[in-house]
């Protein structure tokens, strides 16, 4: 087991690391969603939840990689955190992604057919935001906030970080946003979250994550 994995495991779901800065961040997340709910802008709310649901899924399989290899997660977040939920997922990352999904879909033009630099705008923003996330993750890794211990998930080979780490988040979030009805959105988002929580319950009960 790598030193970073040992550090993360030691702090996993340890409430003694609580910091009061978590509370204003939580209030900001609540504010972001309450504004959209007040406008009855359900496509944005549900797209944001779809985004975090996709992240939740990634964090689950990352925890399973750590459990079954006994070496390290694909990515870890062992640095200071108010609460580490899963081996590569802390409460600050959760809150960040909850806002990011909303911010991303609010950037989308109302006209789905509009092109930007000759590229369909949905594809343009998917590539733009995914690339930006990969760059930020590389910076976080460079300063030690995020750890990578597998050669195929690194700054020298970032394609998997792009294709698996972030691309699906934006693809699914934009897809949910652009659905015709809220009924469709609720059905998809509830399915994603139900699957995530079911996996978390099973894998957590088995002490695999």
Structure commentary:
The structure is a single chain. This protein has helices at 3-11, 22-38, 42-69, 91-106, 121-142, 159-177, 182-205, and strands at 75-76, 84-86, 89-90, 115-116, 119-120, 147-148. With 209 residues, it is mainly alpha-helical. It has one domain (3-205). Strands 1-6 form a two-stranded antiparallel sheet. It has a two-stranded antiparallel sheet with strand order 2-3. Strand 2 and strand 3 (89-90) form a beta hairpin. Helix 3 (42-69) runs parallel beside helix 7 (182-205). The radius of gyration is 17 Å and the shape is globular. The model has no long low-confidence stretch (mean pLDDT 96). It comes from Desulfoluna spongiiphila. This is Lycopene cyclase domain-containing protein.
Brief descriptors of the model:
globular; mainly alpha; 7 helices; two-stranded antiparallel ribbon; transmembrane helix
Give a quick rundown of the structure.
The protein is mainly alpha-helical and 209 residues long.
């Amino acid at each position: 087991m790598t030193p970073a994995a040992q550090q993360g495991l030691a702090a996993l779901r340890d409430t003694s690391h609580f910091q009061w800065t978590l509370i204003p961040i939580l209030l900001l997340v609540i504010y972001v969603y309450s504004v959209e709910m007040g406008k009855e802008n359900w496509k944005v709310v549900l797209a944001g939840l779809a985004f975090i649901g996709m992240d939740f899924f990634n964090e689950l399989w990352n925890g399973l990689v750590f459990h079954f290899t006994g070496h390290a997660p694909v990515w870890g977040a062992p640095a200071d955190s108010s609460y580490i939920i899963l081996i590569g997922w802390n409460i600050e990352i959760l809150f960040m992604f909850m806002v990011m999904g909303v911010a991303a879909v609010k950037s989308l033009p109302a006209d789905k057919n509009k092109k930007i630099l000759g590229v369909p705008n949905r594809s343009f923003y998917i590539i733009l935001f995914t690339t930006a996330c990969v760059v930020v993750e590389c910076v976080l890794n460079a300063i030690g906030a995020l750890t990578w211990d597998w050669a195929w998930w690194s700054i020298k080979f970032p394609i998997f970080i792009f294709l698996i780490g972030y691309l699906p988040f934006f693809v699914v979030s934009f897809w949910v946003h652009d659905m015709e009805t809220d009924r469709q959105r609720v059905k998809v988002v509830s399915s994603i979250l139900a699957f995530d929580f079911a996996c978390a319950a099973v894998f957590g009960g088995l002490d695999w994550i």
